Amino acid sequence: MSLQILVAGAGIGGLAAALALARKGHRVEVLEQAAAFGEVGAGIQLGPNVTRRLHALGLAPGLASIAARPAMLCVRGAHDGRELARLPFGEAGERRYGAPYLCVHRADLHGLLLDTLRHADGPASAVTLNTNARVRLVSLRGGEAVGVESADARAWEGDALVGADGLWSRVRAEVVEDDPPPRSTGHTAWRALVPQRDLPGRLRSDRVDVWLGARLHAVAYPVRGGDWLNVVVLAEAPPPPGDARDWDQAASLASLQQATGRVGAGLQALLEAVPGWRAWRLHDRDPLAGPQAMARERIALLGDAAHPMLPYLAQGAGMAIEDAAALAEVLADADGEAVPAALARYAQARWERNAQVQARARRNGRIFHATGALRLGRDMALRVGGARVLDVPWLYAG
Ligand SMILES: Cc1cc2nc3c(=O)[nH]c(=O)nc-3n(C[C@H](O)[C@H](O)[C@H](O)COP(=O)(O)OP(=O)(O)OC[C@H]3O[C@@H](n4cnc5c(N)ncnc54)[C@H](O)[C@@H]3O)c2cc1C
User: Fold this and answer.
1) Pick from 117, 162, 107, 175: which is nearest to 135 by CA?
2) Which CATH number do you get for residue 163?
3) Whole-model pTM?
4) What is the extent of the structural domain holding 314?
5) 251-284 pLDDT, tens per residue?
6) How far is the CA of 366 from the centre of ligand 1 (A)?
């Protein structure tokens, strides 16, 4: 049976949900507040748990054309540059988890989802994409349907509403009562993208490099088929002054190093070779406490709207994509009446895994940024345990 589903928000989570739902034969209205569809310039890593789901949506060829396939993860000290551990990805990892570990530019993944929706001639053609549609009012029509009104007074009605409207979600207030705002973590991400051809040979890379330091860590990995390098420094320090909701603040190496101090020579050379920086304030929420925080009646939350997290497990977009696949699964054969029960099953199926990933992301922050005895213990565990410590089968096989 074909349902009418409203999706608030056209980020990676909202577009993945629209595609997954349309592939199940539903009609979807995507409502995006911005005047144009787009994503900020930064990279994201996609574990095999995520690429497996994207492949199931028919995106394997498109992904292969935009992604870089890193050879390994390599962890070093940020101050002495010494290698602590490595985890090869490659074919063995792909065989183990049934899908590759990939790194992409966010805009490329977003563009791939958007192009697939726009040019689909099968079931995915039943998706309408609306811009300038900021969801303002939500009403449950006596339990029979859900209505939405945008800030410019346009109205839509559907069998279900999916809140994929990100960290500062409007739809969330319809599901979660007495909800505090997202927590400002006091951590900032400084990020940059640089063409590899503009870097000296010793700084170019085909792997995910992580440097661990006191109250900071840095990550670099290739994107765009390996042609560009994405560099992120994450530190326990405030960003340059500005709007707390601004994802994409102008920044500089000077502001970054005011927060971090100088790092070891290898990492320092990379930071100095990067032409420009943007800063991104990091917020999160406490891990989900139960299914009631992900769905109510005909409304479900997905991605950052439901479970924003620190990016220290590199799985925020990943969990949004997992949510999207799970949502389409529970709604596959539902008729209009069955929607509330199906969304309750979705919330039940997703909340514990999302909570676990949120909690592990916070814990990783404490371990990555450790000082003193915790740091010594961490380094020893990495040196002795190597790949075994870095691998996360509970996550990648899920
Ligand atoms: C530094 C950093 C690195 C990261 N690295 C990774 C990584 O390696 N791997 C990974 O998986 N994740 C990573 N993440 C997390 C990931 O970026 C987010 O979890 C993911 O983008 C969330 O997607 P979303 O679709 O839920 O929300 P968003 O991307 O925030 O999209 C929400 C959309 O809703 C729209 N919207 C908002 N309000 C309304 C409204 N009222 N009406 C209509 N539309 C609305 C917005 O304009 C936006 O388009 C990282 C995050 C950071 C900060």
Assistant:
1) 162
2) 3.50.50.60
3) 0.97
4) 4-40+113-181+286-363
5) 889 989 988 888 999 999 999 999 999 998 899 9
6) 23
